[in-house]
Design a protein that fits this description.
Low-confidence stretches: 1-20
Subunit structure: Homodimer and heterodimers.
Number of strands: 2
Helix content: over 70%
Membrane topology: Multi-pass membrane protein
Order of helices and strands: HHEEHHHH
InterPro entries: CASP/CASPL, CASP_dom
Distance between the termini: 78 Å
Family: Belongs to the Casparian strip membrane proteins (CASP) family.
Strand order of the largest sheet: 1-2
Keywords: Cell membrane, Membrane, Transmembrane, Transmembrane helix
Mean pLDDT: 77
Strand content: under 5%
Radius of gyration: 26 Å
Length: 207
């Protein structure tokens, strides 16, 4: 009898836990939240150490606003990744409000890092290709080392973006399959105003 009770108490595969989903889904989500931390930190270190000084002059990440923004966002995302991973890893009941907060933060972080890496990619593209219309020369011909490190940093950050997109999909799926979308005030008033018109049209005799 004791053995049967012990076996029943053990968590079974794909068993739903207090975290709001199957154990395998929660584990996958936790790993996807931890992975961007390492990627963001790697991109952060690459960018911070990216500076070149040669006979033509010197260039550093701090000279470019988009790369400074990339540093800030990578640091922010690394911190958010570890905090959210600890939160989702613990088997606890997640309320409706906390689910909405987690979903909203996932969206904000995803769009923030996507905007940062997109802006840095545009600057790097101009450094490689130049722009003859505005007499922007190909800076990577002179500062090849800087461009190589910047390319590596952007590539690693894009890996973090992929992880955040998957995390956002998981959090949105969990939220909208568990709870309904909130009722908006204008949608309620519009539906209430449309109801009498429908009743009048239904009651009117055909001509």
């Amino acid at each position: 009898m004791t053995k049967v009770t012990t076996d029943l108490a053990k968590p079974q595969p794909h068993q739903k836990v207090a975290g709001g989903g199957p154990t395998s889904v929660r584990t996958a989500e936790t790993l996807l939240r931890v992975a961007p931390m390492g990627l963001c930190l790697a991109a952060l270190v690459l960018t911070l150490k990216n500076s070149v000084d040669n006979e033509y002059g010197s260039v550093s990440y701090s000279d470019l606003g988009s790369f400074k923004y990339l540093v800030y966002v990578n640091g922010l995302c690394a911190g958010y990744s570890i905090l959210s991973a600890f939160y989702t890893a613990a088997p606890r009941s997640i309320s409706k409000s906390s689910s909405w907060v987690l979903f909203s933060l996932d969206q904000v972080v995803t769009y923030a890092i996507l905007a940062a890496v997109s802006a840095a990619s545009e600057i790097l593209y101009l450094a490689y290709k130049g722009d003859e219309e505005v007499t922007w020369s190909r800076a990577c011909v002179i500062y090849a080392g800087f461009c190589h490190k910047a390319t590596a940093s952007i590539g690693v950050t894009f890996g973090a973006v992929v992880c955040y997109v998957l995390v956002s999909l998981i959090s949105s799926y969990r939220l909208f399959t568990t709870y309904h979308a909130p009722n908006l005030p204008f949608s309620t008033s519009t539906a209430a105003a449309a109801a009498p018109e429908d009743d009048e049209s239904a009651a009117a005799p055909p001509r």
